[in-house]
Amino acid sequence: VYLQLALYLDPTHALALLSLGDLYETVKRPQLAIKAYERVPANSLLKRNAQIQLAANLDAVERGEDGIKILKELIEDHPKDIESIMALGNIERGKKKFAECGETYTLGIDALPAVNEQSWVFFYFRGICYERSKQWAKAEADLKKALELKPGQAHVLNYLGYSWIDQGVNLDEGMK
Questions:
Q1: Residue 51 contacts by C-beta under 8 Å, 6 or more apart in sequence?
Q2: Nearest to 166 by CA among 132, 121, 123
Q3: What ranges in the chain are assigned the alpha helix state H?
Q4: Closest C-alpha among 10, 35, 9, 56 to residue 20
Q5: Average pLDDT over residues 40-64
Q6: For the CA atoms of the chain, what is the radius of gyration?
Q7: Does residue 39 sit in helix, strand or coil?
Q8: Which conformational region is residue 96 in: left (phi greater than 0), alpha (psi within -120 to 50 degrees), or beta?
Q9: What is the average pLDDT value for the chain, to the nearest integer?
Q10: Taking 80 as the threshold, does the pLDDT of residue 73 lie above it?
Q11: How far is CA 173 from CA 38, 81, 94, 155, 158, in A?
Q12: Residue from 175, 89, 173 nearest 132 by CA
């Protein structure tokens, strides 16, 4: 109610539109979230955030290609925008575009100011993309790098272990 009141008073209030979009996402109404994010003014400092969320919601309503286009434009304008790069890689991975998402996560890794513990997720996701695109040597290296950065990370351990077992290599370590 308060967000609608704020938008009644100022229909272009970027923070209210972003908050409304977020609220619609929370209640699983991506179509309404899309409408809110599309209304964020082009000159707003929050437009980038709205575009990233818009892309994710477009993907949620089976318009992922439109979301990919938006994110690629954001990245073209700001090549080191880690959040846009991650969002693009995630949509591509969800659409099983594994060769593309491997390249996208590489852009993200290259854009990182420093590789640290929080960087593990880029290596993990890129490792998944490499494994799914039949580039096992690269996948294994990335999954090991993710574990080096975040030892004991359950998702990485699980993916690496199952991959080893599926391939019939490192069986003892894979079972652990």
A1: 37, 70, 71, 74, 84
A2: 132
A3: 2-9, 14-26, 30-38, 47-60, 64-77, 82-94, 98-111, 120-132, 136-149, 154-167, 171-175
A4: 35
A5: 97
A6: 19
A7: coil
A8: left
A9: 95
A10: yes
A11: 49, 37, 29, 15, 11
A12: 89
Residue matched to tokens 């990485």: 156
Q: Mean pLDDT, to the nearest integer, of 113-142?
A: 96
Q: What is the pLDDT of residue 23?
A: 97
pLDDT over 90 at 128, yes or no: yes
* Residue 65: pLDDT over 80: yes
Sign of CA dihedral 122, 128, 129, 135: positive
- Identify whether the C-beta of residue 34 lies closer than 8 Å to the C-beta of residue 64: no
Question: In the prediction, which pLDDT does 67 show?
Answer: 97
42 Ramachandran zone, left/alpha/beta (phi>0; psi -120 to 50): alpha
Angle, alpha carbons 11-17-21 (nearest 5°): 140
How many C-beta atoms surround the C-beta of residue 98 within 10 A? 18
Largest CA distance in the chain: 65
Phi, psi of 43, rounded to the nearest 5 degrees: -90, 5
Q: Report yes or no: 25 and 53 within 8 Å, Cβ to Cβ.
A: yes
